[in-house]
């Protein structure tokens, strides 16, 4: 299990989307940075694989959204809404979209993550690896950070990065407690252990 104690307590050790109790991980709901518990969802490996898939979704698996879309947790509502929109050709998903209720700021957060695939910007590190919100990267060389008055050293880690949505060459995050923007060609993605 790869989730914080607080998230584990909130989700009662179950995937907040489908209820599975195995292989839970924290999922950061973009464009948030995941620095707060309210910006994270506990999901299982099956749901994570489905979410990251660019292919069609397993509609039978996602019928669980009929229940999880009513979660009182805004981050869970956001993920459910986005997934239902990916399956909007299904009558049951259309019905669910029409029934779901979210506070205006939650709806705005949900809609912010729905994008046209043809206009999707892909962020890549110096080795060509695709970067995603929440990844950890390390610097491949020393960088003088303009306006912050310090040099970010080679090997320094930036955790829980945020992709700049309109520029494939920029990411945001913190190094040495300073919020900065980095150019992707100066970082490499830290791969998760399998």
The count of DSSP E runs of length 2 or more, i.e. the number of strands, is 9
Number of domains: 2
End-to-end separation in angstroms reads 13 Å
Q: What low-confidence regions span 5 or more consecutive residues with pLDDT below 50?
A: none
The chain-level mean pLDDT equals 87
Strand content: 15-25%
Assign the structural class, choosing from mainly alpha, mainly beta, alpha/beta, alpha+beta, or little secondary structure: alpha+beta
The string of secondary-structure elements, in order, is HEEHHHHHEEEEEEE
Helix content: 25-40%
Largest sheet: 5 strands, antiparallel
> What global shape is seen?
elongated
Can you describe this structure?
- This protein is of the alpha+beta class.
- It has 2 domains: 5-118, no CATH class; 137-189, SH3 type barrels, CATH 2.30.30.
- It has 6 helices and 9 strands, in the order αββαααααβββββββ.
- The chain has a 5-stranded antiparallel beta sheet with strand order 8-7-6-3-9, with no helix packed on it. The protein has a two-stranded antiparallel ribbon with strand order 1-2.
- Helix 4 packs across helix 6.
- The radius of gyration is 18 Å and the shape is elongated.
- The mean pLDDT is 87.
Compact summary:
The chain has 194 residues and is an alpha+beta fold. The chain has helices spanning 5-11, 45-52, 65-68, 74-86, 91-99, 104-112; strands at 24-28, 40-44, 137-139, 143-145, 150-152, 157-163, 170-175, 178-183, 187-189.
